[in-house]
Inverse folding.
């Protein structure tokens, strides 16, 4: 990788291969399909390996299969697509073709509840989600069962506005915190 631009995909707009604030992106290593959280178009756009339009799913709304500013995408080991439905305070699960499967989470600060979930990553079939207003990372199984949450700000420090997250090869989780201007390693 030498930093040379190889391809520019899409432009601002509302149609196929057009985006209005693309925010999250995931590539299926098996199929080469690209899943893009198209934030202000309230949908997920799916591109083929050659970056041509495959299909999209979702539209603006509060019902199931609808989104209010989807922010992040992730794939599990079965190829299911998980989407952080940020302003509906939930995670929605879809098949690769965009067929709705299930959802989990509801608005609130309690265990298994979410407040503005943003970024999502899956590691060993556990889902890790950053939450803006709960200032934490919540962990679920790929079936949507709550496991734990951590990182909430306390007298010893902690997360204020967690945004990005990733795992290293040793299984450590790194979380970028926008407000505290630092990276947390777990």
């Amino acid at each position: 990788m030498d930093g040379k631009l190889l391809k520019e995909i899409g432009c601002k707009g509302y149609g196929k291969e057009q985006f209005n604030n693309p925010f999250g992106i995931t590539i299926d290593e098996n199929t080469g399909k690209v899943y893009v959280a198209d934030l202000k178009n309230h949908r997920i756009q799916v591109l083929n390996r050659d970056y041509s339009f495959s299909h999209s799913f979702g539209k603006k709304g509060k019902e199931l299969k609808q989104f209010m500013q989807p922010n992040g995408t992730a794939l599990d080991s079965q190829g299911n697509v998980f989407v952080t439905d940020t302003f509906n305070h939930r995670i929605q699960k879809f098949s690769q073709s965009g067929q709705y499967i299930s959802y989990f989470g509801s608005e609130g600060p309690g265990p298994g509840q979410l407040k503005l979930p943003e970024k999502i990553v899956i590691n060993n079939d556990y889902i890790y989600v950053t939450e803006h207003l709960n200032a934490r990372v919540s962990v679920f199984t790929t079936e949507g069962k709550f496991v734990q949450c951590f990182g909430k700000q306390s007298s010893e420090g902690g997360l204020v506005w967690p945004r990005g997250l990733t795992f290293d090869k040793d299984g450590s989780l790194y979380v970028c915190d926008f407000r505290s201007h630092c990276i947390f390693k777990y």
The chain has no helices and 17 strands.
